[in-house]
Amino acid sequence: MKNLAWFPEALFNSYAQVFFSNNKWFGIILLLLTFVDFYVGIFGLISVTTALFTGYFIGLYENNIRQGYYGFNSLLVGVGLSIYFQPSLLLLVLVIISGMLTVFLSLAFEGILGKYGLPFLSLPFILVFWILRLATREFETLGLSERGVYVLNELYLLGGKNLVTMYEWWNQIPFHTSLKTYFLSIGAIFFQQNVFSGFFAALGLLIYSRIGFTLSLFGFYIAYLFYILLGVPFSEVSYSYIGFNYILTAIALGGYFIIPNKSSYTSLLFIIPITAVVGISLQQVFNLFYLPVHSFPFNVTVLLILYGLKFRVDNRIGLSTVFWQQQSPEKNLYNFLNFQERFGKGSPLPIYLPFFGEWTVTQGHNGNYTHKDEWRHAWDFEIQDDQGKTFQENGDFASDYYCFDKNVLAPADGVVEALVNDIEDNAIGNRNLDKNWGNTLVIKHSEFLFSKLSHLKKGSILPKVGDKVAKGEIIAKVGNSGNSAYPHLHFQLQATPFIGSKTIDYPISDFWMKNEEKETLEAVGNPPMPAKVSTLTPNPQLKKAFSFVIGNQIQWETNTGEKVIWEVKRDYLLNTYLECKDTESKAFYKLDEGTLHFIHFVGDRKSLLYQFYLAAYKISFGYSNKLLLKDSFPVNMIFNPHRIFLQDIIAPFYQYLKGEYLLSYPDKARGLGQQNIVLNGKVTNLAFGKEIEHAEFLFQIGASGLQSFQFKNKHFQTQAKCTGS
Amino acid sequence: MTKLIFERPIIQRINAGLPSKYGMAHKLEPISHIDNVSIKSLMDSYGSPLFIISESTIRKTYKNAFRAFSSRYPKVQFAWSYKTNYLNAVCNVFHQEGSWAEVVSGFEYDKAIANGVPGELIIFNGPDKSRQDLEKAIKNGSLIHIDHFDELYEIISLSKEIEERPKVAIRVNMDTGIYPRWDRFGFNYENGEAWDALNRIMANKKLDLLGLHTHIGTYMMSTDAYKIAATKLASLAVRLEQKHGHVLQYIDMGGGFASKNTLRGAYYPGTDTTPSFDDFAEAITSAFMSSEIKPDNLPLLILENGRALIDDAGYLAGTVLANKRLADGRRATIIDAGVNILFTAFWYEHDIRPVEPVSEQTEDTTIYGPLCMNIDVIRGNVMFPLLKKGDHYVIRRVGAYNNTQWLQFISMRPNVVMIDSKGEPHLIRKNETLETINSQELTPEHLKNFDL
């Protein structure tokens, strides 16, 4: 039975996925609600189970099965069929084969739409449902269901008199018509058109997501008012039958596929009426075939909008599409905000400074001299001494300049795309306006990401066009060619491979910056003029301690004698994480040349791994005495779920909770070899800028790696020794 | 109008037409101030002769040198060579700039510790390390650069008694195409002794082999030698990694960079012939960057420069004692600083300048020190202005070795002052007195009295 451990999770998620959720409790509530009509419940269950096992036996990626991706469409098909038809053996067979068919259709849509980075939503369900509705007209033995008429009888059979009384009581609560319609609409998503089901489904939605719940109300009332404006008459029944389209659209575009914020809420004011018009119009067409449109308008609008948004230049402004789906508007929002804060505008491919040592930005973005208009996102670098001079002697010769003839390094792995290597270096003070860029190298790092290094020394460029270069490889020397009156290095990033292409705003990763008397470590950033910047040189000891190797195990023994084992793993999508063997908690991390970032945690928050996730949230391998690293946590990762209930509701507009991270490095550098490095730090929870609670932690790092870890807060006083890694 | 200076009358042949092979006669520009502090006022306060060290020159030179390396190589560390000048104030300027300490005796080691240098940031070089010195160095976690097998055996035997693991490197000597070859220090590269020593260390599980060290010579005027040395050390590092899977943490290229002093007998002045820090840095770093060492394993580059970092910062100022005419008709000027305090006069044609303004008239002059010893010659012959008794002179670039190799001989060693970056002079070593000398002496009871 161990092999079936995935099943309950997959089952509940299949229910919850109807509302884009993977919340177990929400799934259970919905599962129970389908049993308001016993046969609907049972056939729905059969259909989901069929689909899940089909997926399991043909060997689909288990995580996707667990998430319920292949189950929820089948659920809708099963529920839908059993609402329309009398329970019978034939229906059972139909439910089973249509469950299977839905899985394959889901895969087909996943394949087709996945290429465009789009979800398949409930398209497989609609298609299968139509297929069966058309096919079953030929099946004489299949009787139309009359059970909707005898709901009370069914309930009586199921739960006796009490259940019937309760059901009646719910349906007779004098909700406002609109609210009643809202509940009916929610229930209708899985064919349960009664206030009782609707109310509890809405409650489940609230438990799953505060933002999702508010969006469902928001979307519904926009549509409600729009119908009043249209003057289109609708009966409760026929309206609620398509009303859920607006609820689903609002959740999908207001907060699930798009980060919930002011813009996303505003956009719904327009999107919901569009959905309504599309829905009304489609209904006219499908009426010809006697088919219900069901959730088709929602599918059409959502896909259309998501696809359209992909054509923007920058996906991170206004309506920011979610790039890492976490199955909850809140989580998406908190992580998005946190990601923006930590990694700025983000750089999926890190670009590093192209030199050794400390250089000064003598012209930054939007510079005073030449970095203007289309070429504004560029840097000029020079070396300055303490007096701010860039040369020794009188500066009459290029060789007097500190930066002249210094090595230029490849800023990242790539292929040489274009180069010029034969322009004479200018005498000091002269410019070659004819060959503006001078000796220049353009390197392709990925599609639409090229770096360009200019004014290089004549004949100094080492690679040839087409050569591969590795990050940090010496590729040229700084010169004084082109529009350069004195030696400097011009560095820019561009989206096209030409010398002279316009620049793009793309940050540099992992560098030290001294600016305005402050020293900071920048994970990503645009160094401004006149900052002094230098590349991180990793401390081998720190790097060794925190460079987790996939496949390794890290073993701990705590002061309570508990033994904890973590495994370093990588998933299907190449995310790297530590997994605790006992609790199955996972801490996701991102590791590059100079820094370890933890980016996510799932699982048991009482585990050692969670404390480690908090403590090792950001560790720079680049070492400097008395270095302070600061960072911030996504609110949901550091506060208790009940604590953020209120925050969730207003989160798209305002955040009053904050989680801050601070790590301090030792006061003194300690030479080479087996010295212990002690890092300590603090995690602080804040509300309205005031500290609510905090935790303190400490790492000891020896020559062979991590030695011990301490974590102390209100609830825990952990001391753990690393016994193997 | 200021009073015109009086100079003694001389007879000089008019040198018309093309200049001789010595070029045009040139006037020695007087140096009256160091870092805007008047030399004369310093001598008024601190006596004559007087060593003057410019703190800002040290810092400037250090930064220039460090920039030359750090802008070419990712990991660079300087270690101040104590023997070059171990006046505590001087050492601490370097430590403030970030230098570790490089010492070559138990005495220097203790001096570095007393200056507050953490034990693990001291590099212990040299052929003379006693068992006690080694024990101390191991316990402090200092980096021990092994000079010979006997020292290695001593460390191995100590490692059995001491809990701390000795952190060692070996000093390697090699043919870098220069003469003389310094093969008396460390293990030879070409005959395989160095590789042998490395294998023995690797076989011993109690030693941590952290690096390689070389010091190819002193006053090196060629950068190629460094390139060859760096290439050879890199090849040792690569072999170690191939055979033992051991990655070295650092390579110490020693020092030996020439300063801008002119060596005795050199045809061109040192200011023209000495390679710059950039030249040395380019040679060394390019050898490492183009070696087979994996980019991730590039070792820390340590440099132990002494002379090139401090020479320019030191000045010796003093007073003319007398002038006389020698038997062959040449002029002789006797000054109050002798070779006992200016040891480097044996090596260099020191740049000696007047302090007060002078005319452009010069005369072929021998400059003698005050000692009653025939060897006490500061400059054999120099076209020198016509200084008279009581005038002042200043000798440039005396920062290296003089304050460590000077002798108390015939006269006492003078004061040393350091001018800080704000132009404030600080006395950093007091002159010796009769009490200083006598305090060390013990006279047996029966010799205490005599009756003349």
- Side by side, the strands of the main sheet of chain A go 18-17-16-15-14-13-24-23-22-21-20-19
In DSSP terms (H or I, runs of 4 or more residues), the helix count of chain B works out at 13
Helix content of chain A: 25-40%
Q: Separation of termini of chain A? A: 33 Å
Name the chain pair with the biggest interface and residue counts per chain.
Answer: A-B, 29 and 29 residues
Give the proportion of residues in helices of chain B.
25-40%
The secondary-structure class of chain B comes to alpha/beta
Mean pLDDT of chain A: 86
The gross shape of chain B turns out to be globular
Radius of gyration of chain B, Cα only, in angstroms?
25 Å
Count structural domains of chain A.
Answer: 4
Explain this structure to me?
The longest helix of chain A has 26 residues, at 89-114. Chain A contains 19 helices and 24 strands. In chain A, the strands form three sheets. Chain A has a twelve-stranded antiparallel beta sheet with strand order 18-17-16-15-14-13-24-23-22-21-20-19. Chain A has a ten-stranded antiparallel beta sheet with strand order 7-4-5-6-9-2-1-12-10-11, with no helix packed on it. A two-stranded antiparallel ribbon of chain A has the order 3-8. In chain A, strand 5 (439-446) and strand 6 (449-456) form a beta hairpin. In chain A, 37% of the residues lie in helices and 22% in strands. Chain A folds into four domains: 1-145, Orthogonal Bundle (Ammonium transporter fold); 176-327, Orthogonal Bundle (Ammonium transporter fold), CATH 1.10.3430; 358-535, Glucose Permease (Domain IIA); 540-724, no CATH class. Chain B has helices at 39-46, 55-70, 88-97, 106-114, 131-140, 149-159, 193-203, 224-244, 270-273, 277-289, 307-310, 402-405, 434-439; strands at 33-34, 37-38, 50-54, 76-81, 100-103, 122-124, 143-146, 167-173, 187-188, 208-213, 250-252, 300-303, 314-325, 331-335, 352-354, 362-368, 377-385, 392-396, 416-419, 425-429. Chain B contains 13 helices and 20 strands. The mean pLDDT of chain B is 92. The interface between A and B is medium-sized, with 29 and 29 residues.
